[in-house]
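Reviewers of the previous submission asked for a worked example of the structure-prediction workflow described in the proposal, so we include one complete record here. The input consisted solely of the amino acid sequence. No template or homolog information was supplied to the procedure at any stage.
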Amino acid sequence: MFFNVSGHEVKVEVEKKKVFLSKHSERKLKKFKIHFQVYNPLKIPKTVTSIDDKKKWNVIDSYRYYTEGNPVVRYIFEIEEIEELNIRVLHLGELQIKPDYYQEEIDESADILLIKAGLILDNQQWEYLSDLYKKGPVTIKREGISLKPKKMIFNRLIWSQKSNNEIKCALSLVEDKVNHYRQMLGSKVEIENLKKVASFNQGSIAALIEILTEKKILNDQDLEKINKMQKTLPDDLQYIQVEDLDDFLKKYKI
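From that input alone, the workflow returned the following structure tokens.
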């Protein structure tokens, strides 16, 4: 068996083979303990590649031993197969869509699935997704990775209107074990606080208008103009809308 190790093609001897289940897909992956030798020391890489099947492997641990005066250096690597995560379709409730971009990871501290995805939606799809966002937890499937349903919570949703019938959004989801999750769900808290501030400001303006009216500083015509200008509090989706999503993500690197 041959591996590419730090740019060197080396023949390895496999001492131990183990199988473990992926936390992403529950597929069987391999874990090897390999031996090989080279002339002169190598820089220990984070990953290696098996030549025959082009698979990538994480280097979990490494050891080396050599004899003084002998240029041959022997290495022992413990390596773990890296799973390729190629999503074909993301299922969000009844909505099925190919993400514009997709990333998922496992928070090892809590054994929780975290997802970030970019979606381009038409108005009907956006209406459905925004309704899911308002209602709370959503059942998802990751076609191409795992069709096992996962209950997820919206951690963040940011969107912008690209055209009359095209909405671009970036979302992050957290597996619904949130009571055990170490981070606060950011956007929901932000929205609630913004709503409180907006409500307070609107109340202050209403009180000011009332005082000015009582003192006859404002007449009926002034009040009519002000009433036309006053708007109701925006809904949750307006708090998370940005002018251009691509520019926003580049600027804030969310």
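The first strand starts at residue 2 and ends at 5. We consider this example representative of the routine output the project will generate in years two and three.
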